[in-house]
Fold:
Amino acid sequence: MTKKHYKQNNHPVFTLKIITHTNHNISQKEINRNALKVLQRLLNAGFEVYLVGGSVRDLLLKKKPKDFDITTNATPEQVKHLFKNCRLIGRRFRLAHIIFGREIIEVATFRGHHKNLKKNISMQSKKGILLRDNVYGKIHEDVERRDFTINAMYYNIKDYSIHDYFGGISDLKNKVIRLIGNPKIRYREDPVRILRAIRFSVKLNFHIEKDTAQPIQELSYLLKEVPAARLYEESLKLLQSGYGLKTYHLMRQYNLFQQLFPITSSYFTKDYSSYTEKMLSLVLNSTDLRIEAGKRINPAFMFVAILWYPLNILADELAKKNKLAYYDAIIEAGNVILHEQAKTIAIPRRHTETIREIWQLQLCLPRRRGNQAFRLMELNKFRASFDFLEMRGVIEGKEIEELSKWWLIFQNAGSNIQESMISHF
Ligand code: ATP
Ligand code: MG
Structure:
């Protein structure tokens, strides 16, 4: 193990540790074939090139990486030159995507410092001008832009060593989530890092280090500044990746869930007793179980569930105030609720349509006379609507529970029994 020390003005101090290939447990065989091809070709062309981020972390933990990100000193144009199957994307920071059928390997050029830090104007502005023209940097600059120590390890394809700048290996061993640099500054630069700290802590079962955890609650309001489209993506990673229930509890504890889902959390109680809270637990738990069982999940379903009781309360109010029929009130309340939710989380239109449909079907499921039950069963969204009805049955009991039991029997019954089940309506 070699050690080099660096000290720089305004930048976090790091100690580079190089772990040679005999001293770590990553074997080349575990690296995705296409990622290896990209690494090799860049290396052979004379560039510095590393596997980086979550893949190195997960390989060290003997977990299956989600993706294999690569970083290099080659510029995107140089990368494109080497690969026929390469597409350059992104305007603010260009990235190369190497396309292998359905798989994409992302190659990023080392990032430099392109954000000026407070005062010290002359130096910083000088730097700023220089860096605005050239945001690419050296590996030791790239590493400072990364979020957590465990995400800032580089696997060098040249000699199979791991370059660990901020003690990632030791934090991995001690199961610690630690931000690189000053946590307050790093959270202000990009508040999504707050959510990432929570996400990795739950997913890896790691402890958030004291200084990294301390400012979270105080800075939670910063999430309001994050574009709603990005928060949509993050909300899925947080709540629909297999650890939703645990993540929700931790987010709630740090006042983060409240920022992303203000309507839902306005029904939070001290003892978790509201219908909304019960529904949240139920839907997140069932999503976690589905993921564990390898089943498909539809993001619309979660939003259906967590907005349903607030929707009903609003619909009641609207029905009274505007003398609307309940069905119309639900439609109207649906518009209001989805519009409000879109201010923090931009749910794509294809999902909002499904959400409305499942909500409206809740009002249709009690109508089973004549051919109605059969027609309902043929609808595309019947299955999801029934699954949701079952959850409501667990929470509300009484008629809803009976209704969901009726539908369960009806779906599985032969046609004689089905006929007799609807004959008495
Ligand atoms: P996952 O298993 O969720 O893919 P990951 O660590 O690979 O985890 P990505 O979102 O794929 O996360 O990002 C890849 C790498 O890019 C991270 O490991 C980290 O080094 C860096 N990174 C991603 N997002 C940020 C951010 N908001 N701020 C700083 N660095 C980031
Ligand atoms: Mg990743």
